[in-house]
Specification:
235 residues, Pseudouridine synthase, 2 domains, 34% strand
Length: 235
Amino acid sequence: MENKESGFTQAPTCGAGFIIINKPVDFTSHDVIAVLRGITGIKKIGHAGTLDPFATGVLICAIGRESTKKIDKFVKLDKEYEAVLRLGAETDTYDIEGKISNIKCKILEKDVINKVLKEFIGKQEQIPPMFSAKKINGQKLYKLARKGKTIERKSCKIEIYDINLIKYKWPDLEIKVSCSTGTYIRSLGYDIGKKLKCGAYLTNLKRLAIGDFNIKNAIDLKKLNKNNWQKYLLK
């Protein structure tokens, strides 16, 4: 059976293929892999594109050795997100899990916010957050950050294809972002806050799509079990 949106066909019951998971909140991407290993009995499982524990949404998981060899092609695909930014404050992690620092500022008009959002569309350089899984000199940044260390990070080339305001009621701003691979939405939120001169951090993040793989086609992790998981396996 073909999945028209993804171009995949349903895999035979051989235990190799891909499952599109709707990652739940408070799970790391590795937590999802651990659950899938328990359900499938297969040790060799990987994923395309880490999601922070507070984030939800599309996580492509490769089941079996042959499938994990192909996972890199999904990592490089464009992404789409919905994010909620809280204005008027910043955190050291750029999200709701960090230490909050309030910033004195006035309530901003919607037109001002819309204008600033549009300024972020296009190719640009972005500095990865310290609290991220990015490695520098073999060390993951978040491990250094947890020790209270901050090191210089080189900016990375990214592209924001589109960014739209979905809903705004001070201090919360909901946006939808289409972007290239390598984009950190937490850094984008932080940079938007700087541009608005009021600060901002993420309180909610949902990945809607990786390439053509949409949240509508993702399966909730809690719905999978040892008897039905192969039904959702794609190749």
